[in-house]
Each structure stands twice: as C-alpha cells, then as structure tokens.
Write a structure and sequence with these properties.
Number of domains: 1
Number of helices: 12
Shape: globular
CATH topology: Rossmann fold
Number of strands: 7
Low-confidence stretches: 2-27
CATH superfamily: SGNH hydrolase
Largest sheet: 5 strands, parallel
Order of helices and strands: HHEEEHHHEEHEHEHHHHH
Strand order of the largest sheet: 4-3-5-6-7
Mean pLDDT: 88
Distance between the termini: 53 Å
Helix content: 25-40%
Length: about 350
Amino acid sequence: MKRSLRRAAVFLVLVLTGPGLIVAAADEDLPVIRRSFAEVSEPVPPFPLEHDRIRFRPRPGETITWVGGTEIVDLDRHGFLEAALHLAYPDLGLRWRSLAWQGDTVYLQARPMHFYTKSGDPQPGSIPDHRERTEPGIVFIAFGKMESLEGPGRLSDFIAAYAKLIDDLLPLTKRIVLVGPTPFFYSGPAPALSEERNIVLSSYFEAIKKLAAERNLLFILSDAEWNAGMSDNGVHLNETGHRVFAEAISSKFGVGRYRGDSPSLHDAIDRKNRLWQQYYRPSNWAFLFGDRQHVPASRDVEKREERWFVREIDSLPGLIAEAEAEIHRYAREATNTAPVK
C-alpha cells in the first residue's frame, strides 16, 4: 500500500474541486496547513499547568481549529462536539474552524492551485488568493487512523511527518492538542479485518501519545464504549458515533458530558459551518483564484470589469460573523450566563 494514501489524497482533491485544477505545488510559501493560518508576531502561549498537568483552558474569543481527514471533516456536519464546547464555555465567545479535508493524511494535505499562496496565477486580470486566514489559537490535530492501514513498517515515517506538522505550527501557537484516533469497527464491507487493523492502530496510537509527551503537548483520546453501530463503513463514524465522540472528548476537558439541549444552537452551528465550508473550500476555484480567472465566465455579465466570484466570496466573512454571534447568544441563553467583558 506504499504511497497509496498520498495517491488517494490527490485523487480526492481533484474530484472535490473539479476538473481543470491541480494539487497546489510547493512554492515560496509555507506548507499548506501553516499558510491557512494568519501570521503572528509571537506564538500563542501554551496551556497552563495545574499540579504538573496540562489543562485545557480556552481564552475569551479564542479560535479552535481542527486539522485532519474525512472523519474530522464530518465534525462540521454533525456539530455535537462544537455545541459541547460552546455550552461548556458559553461566556467566552469561542470560534470553531475546520481546516480538515477529505483525503488529508499527515503526509500530504493537497489543495487546489494557488490555495492561500502569496503569488497567484500570472495571467492578466488574475489576483492572488486574498481570503482571510484563520487566527491561531487552539489547534487539534487528528491523524493516524488511515495512515495505520499502511502497516507497522511505516510507523517511523508517520511520526517524522507528524513531528514536522507540529514544527510547522509551533511558531503560531503552543496550544496544540494531539487526538488519539478512533478504532476500526466490525461493520461495513470488511468487518473481519477490524481486529487486525486495530492491533496495528494501537501502535500508532501509542506513538502519538509518546510524541505529545515528548513535545509537552496535550493528548486526548476518545475512550468510549464503541460498537459496530457507530460506523456504517467500518472506518468513519456515523451520526451516532459522532455523538459518542463528542461525549468522550468533552468529558476530557473537565466540563462534563455533552448536552444536546439547544436546537437553536445546533441550527446556528449548522448555518455557520455551511458558510465556513463555502469560504474555506469554495466551488469553481479555477474561476475564483485559480488558472481561469482571465476567461469571460469569471466576470460579471453586465459589468465585465467585476469578478463576481470574488464578490461572492468576500461577502462570506460577514455572514459567518453573524451566524457566530447567534451561536454565542444561544449558548448563553441555554446556560443562563453572561459574556466575558
């Protein structure tokens, strides 16, 4: 299976972003995850130590970011964990941003051409990607499950790539959380392979835990009572699995179990996440910031000098902020708390 994960990631990006796009090549810019974040003069300080243990303590207005593959992408579809965090810290006005992408592995995070790069397409009339970058804060990294399918022989490569990803992010924030992977399930098209796969996965799990200890980073695991009904394909969590995942992870923060008692909060989270995905992963990329910006179809029908794709994308941050304000309001109403001044 050597190189198979990297080939799969490239294929998925081509499928998800459409024809005419290529994977972003290395240029003068930073690695793709690093350049998705706004630069800072000083890195965000680490979590506090209490009784010689690292404690998860968000700061007011802090951005919580997730990096990972398909299973992490689905956190935005279900919203249970995001709701749990807002209900646990309703007065802080936290912001949730997913930088995950289907097919991402610790080895490769493929993106379209000119994705958050400083220099854009060289053809006349083209402009660089000027979208707002994510503010560094708390960054959750969740890799290891899909990589473990390549077997124990690649464990050292996995840890080296994981360590490099951490090194890429440390100049931005010291508040990095490594997430232990969820198990493979006795379900889907290959249930009989789950036991064997989990044996290999356990070695990756322990290696991630050791890496967190060596780097003095917070490590969390989802030690739930898993069963086959929590995954439809034996690999990724389904809705039930994501609810259990939210319960397990939120309990690790010392804030109690997940409470799904605010439909208005969930609706606002769904709305914000749809807007965010349109912003971070826009359709028609080639016409927006890719290599077809110069063609007539990328411009307004009547006002030919205007780029209507750009006009649409530039309207989204304001809409995201409005949805986020609703999230904070509903979280405070559900818990009867006032915002931190």
